[in-house]
Amino acid sequence: MGQRNNKLLMTSVIAMAMGAALFAPASLAQEDEEAVQENVIVTGVRGQPRTVTDSPVPVDVLSSEELENVPFTDANDIIRTLVPSYSLSRQPISDGGTFVRPAQLRGMPTDKTLVLVNGHRRHRAALVQIGGSGTQGPDIATIPAIALANVQVLRDGAAALYGSDAIAGVINFILKDDAEGATITAETGQYYEGDGFQFVTAANFGVPLGENGFANFSIERSTSDATSRGAEYCESWACVDPNDPRFLTGGSFDTTLAGYDPATFAAGLPDANIGFGDVVQPWGQPSSEALRGFVNAGYDLDEYTSLYAFASYSKSSADGSFFYRYPGNGTIENLRLQDGSLWSPLSFFPGGFTPRFFGDVIDYSGVVGIEGEWFDGFSYDISGRLGHNEIQYTLANTVNPSLGNMSPTRFNPGDLINEEFQLQADFAYDLEFASLASPLTLAFGGSFMDESYELVGGDPASYQTGPYATPDPWGFCNAGAPTAAGLAVIANGSTLNCADTSDPVYQVVGVGSNGFPGYSPAFSGEYTRDSYAAYVDLSGDVTDRLFLQGAIRFEDYSDFDSELVWKVAGQFDLTETMGLRGSVGTGFRAPTPGQQGTTNVSTRLPNGFPVATGLFPAGGTIAQALGASPLGPETSTNYAFGFTGGWGDLSLTVDYYRIELEDRVNAISTRDVSNDPGAGTAYQNYLALAGAGVAGAESIGGVFYFQNAFDTITQGVDIVGTYNTSFTEGSSTAFTASVNYNQTEFDGSASVFNAEDTFDFENGQPEWRGVFSVLHEAGPWTFLGRANYYGEYDNSDSGGATGLIQNFSPEVLVDVEASYQISDAVRLSLGARNVFDEYPDAADPAIGDSCCGRIYRSDSVVDWQGGYYYLKLRADL
Questions:
Q1: What pLDDT was estimated at residue 92?
Q2: Is residue 630 within 8 Å of residue 621, measured between CB atoms?
Q3: Which of 251, 336, 406, 816 has its CA 20 to 30 A from that of 809?
């Protein structure tokens, strides 16, 4: 902790010292009047701010009013609601994905979208998403919505301007900077199903710092109850639904275990998943609570120089469930104890058990800087940044099977910590050319960034290899006959039968806290790297109708080779109200230390059946024994071309884009693992794991790792239109329509994928997405209606050619809200999300995506929680 505090202090000192060295008196250039109008953007340009219609790249500006009109407080949900090319899914039973949700922009994971706050890079979350691209991006849920003045969403590659990650675009959160006034909000609501009760309170207020500064504070407190949208667990291998004729039966359901009694088992089912007595395995959103805050401050030292700083703190807690463990599932099995008696975890959990997963996410950050003008036309911005995100895990209602009857039922499997420290210096100089319509802005700068990712070891019981990880741990048998120890326990009444290969003496069970084994010393440690960057950007109005921009950036990483990327963009005014714009450039993304170092063993469904599945670092000995190669950077080439137009109260933008992404990082298809010598490649995978020293390799049923797996081409069109009118005197009505078409396909082969994953990668997401809204204001009343459209998409069981395909039909989710301004200070709103209580199509059991009580695809981008109604109160003081 001391080292982290020292970094923050060093950031402040260096920023001040460098700013003082650069400062010299000068006269400020006249402020550009256009730069103070509402839709000015600072994202995607390094020179003077530009308006949305004059930008050479497409940028959505979401005002504070638009943000307030979305019935969510999570910034993820707000952006998903307003920006159709941004998608988000709820992923229960996905390890840390329960707490930090994965999102996409233009069909690409969020780690390919750069997130900024006030133009400064936001640090990543500690979570590396298991599966898929292994996304490790910022957790924007840590940013309270009430702190935001606006959000600028750049829908274009910008790595040449901002560095790694900006392949799909940039999201820039601009904080409020009011020096006076206060806003207090309170919101409560719940789902039509009667669950998921939520209560959120938030406040924002500003205070002056002397005559030349401000400090703006925001705080948010939220609580949310869990939801359940599944059915009781009833499958061909095990059924615990008392209303089903298959109750207490199934191909793997073992009624011969020690401690099993039908009546006792049925009575224990409500306690199998603590907190959810209706089903043993819930599917829905987790219960959660959070406290989040932001402070944004600035102070003018004089008319030439300003200090600025902003900081955040967030602490949230949530809990979720893993897959239900039934008798005979490989975890609840008979074991022969040291005295020769039989024992199973049913003695701990009479109705079986569902491991419960708890996560505390602690996030804080700080940025300090100095900006101003050195002399007329030469500006600077020098800053330091520290970001920290930590996830502390707790696992309860489970066992370490290999410890048998000596196992605890609660574990601390370890923590994840991601930390970043950065120094940044940006400069801009106006170059005067008489032949040009305006000065050219030469922007240049550099940065140093130090990153670390740490896996903190868990408590010993969470990873310890107990005696039952190997057959016959007490030496009762030898070549099918009892030893002296075996004869002794038989003499004491044991049913030991060494000649029977199915006797529990030979039973092998898994190692570590079941559901999420703890990080052992072998898989703990810190992964670090540093990088240096330098860039040059030149932009300006070449003529009264033509704006051009060019940028080049060099970055060097301690764990990769250096990268050089570039971008050229331009905007041409056809008339005073219509223009053309376009860009072409290259980009890159360096795999994070977390992607290179994360390891995980959890229950997944690679073949529609729950098995323990291991993820191992691509650069480690285990994955390389399976054929993996160390990860390298992803590179891209981006093309964009668009049209902007305005005709009175109507405005329209249409933008085409194409992203060619090479060496895309993604998890390979899960490879089967079996200790059966007749299992072919699955047995070879087992031998590789055992040879690499993986404890409990016998209990692992699948394995995968991340790779620079394939090349893809993503292309699509964004259409945004707005129309403002007044139907009656004293009223106003605003119509907005945003439509996105997005398609991703492989550029060449994807040999690391099986047929099912290949089909689902290209077809498993809606290609069409739209947001249509109308806002009507009349006197004290405001009415809002919004429709979110999701196009059709397909899912396959075995690749589509010979397997089954399920087509998911289009969905429209409608939100409505009515607000009444009670007084100048107080407004009351009543509304509903998904007012018609729509759900996506239920997953077809034949496809394999509705296992274990799940009704809807849990990773669906179409929300599957149903309708939600709410009441909101706002006071402006």
A1: 60
A2: no
A3: 816
User: How would residue 824 be classed by pLDDT, with cut points 50, 70 and 90?
Assistant: very high
Of 30, 64, 37, residue with least CA distance to 51? 37
Q: Which residues touch 795 (CB under 8 Å, ≥6 apart)?
A: 760, 763, 764, 805, 806, 808, 843, 847, 849, 857
Q: Looking at residues 464-470, what average pLDDT do you find?
A: 93
Q: Are 222 and 198 in contact (CB under 8 A)?
A: yes
Q: Note the pLDDT of residue 800.
A: 59
Answer whether 802's CB lies under 8 Å from 796's CB: no
Average pLDDT over residues 500-520: 92
pLDDT at 502 over 70: yes
Q: Which is nearest to 873 in space by CA: 57, 134, 185, 49? A: 185
- Break the chain down into helix, strand, coil percent, rounded to 5: 15, 45, 40
pLDDT, position 55 = 77
Phi and psi, residue 268, nearest 5°: -85, -10
**Residue range 378-413, pLDDT digits in tens:** 999 999 999 999 999 999 999 999 999 999 999 999
101's enclosing H/E stretch is none
How are beta strands 702-704 and 671-672 bridged, if at all?
antiparallel
Asked if 773 contacts 783 with a C-beta cutoff of 8 angstroms, the reply is no
DSSP one-letter string for 572-616: EESSSSEEEEEEEEEEEEPPPHHHHH--EEEEE-TTSS-EEEEE-
Q: Is the C-alpha dihedral spanning 13, 18, 20, 25 positive or negative?
A: negative
Indicate whether 493 pLDDT > 80: yes
DSSP 8-state code for residue 239: B
pLDDT of residue 17: 32
What is the sign of the dihedral through the CA atoms of 590, 596, 600 and 603? positive
Three-class secondary structure of residue 668 per DSSP: coil
Q: Is the dihedral of CA 849, 853, 856, 860 positive or negative?
A: negative
Which of 24-38, 270-284, 588-602 has the least mean pLDDT? 24-38
For residue 825, what are the CA distances in angstroms to 70, 822, 856?
20, 8, 43
Beta-carbon contacts of 373 under 8 Å, excluding residues fewer than 6 positions away, are 26, 28, 29, 304, 305, 379, 380
DSSP state of 245: T
**Where are the extended beta strands (E) located within 648-803?**
650-667, 671-672, 702-704, 706-725, 731-746, 768-778, 781-790, 793-796
Parallel/antiparallel/unpaired status of strands 600-604 and 634-647:
unpaired
Task: For the chain, state the CA radius of gyration.
Answer: 29
The total of other beta-carbon atoms located within 10 Å of residue 8's CB is 20
d(CA 3, CA 1): 5
Q: Are 714 and 740 in contact (CB under 8 A)?
A: no
Whether 338 has a pLDDT exceeding 50, the answer reads: yes
Distances (CA, A) of 89 to 98, 136, 533: 10, 15, 34
Q: How far apart (Å, rounded) are the C-alpha atoms in residues 667 and 665?
A: 7
Mean pLDDT, all residues of the chain: 88
CB 763 within 8 Å of CB 756: no
